[in-house]
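Problem 12. The chain below contains 41 residues. Write out its predicted structure in token notation.
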Amino acid sequence: MDISEEMYRLNYKIMLVGDGEKITGVLTEEDILKAILKFGY
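Solution.
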């Protein structure tokens, strides 16, 4: 089981960040919402 499946099973909404071959980070729904509130998008 990879990290995205594991997070999904924990009921997190995530988006993997990378170039398709190498994952460089993970954005959670909470990260995205915090950015929206901080920067006002």
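Discussion. The two ends are 34 Å apart (CA to CA). Students who got a different answer should revisit the alignment rule from Section 12.3.
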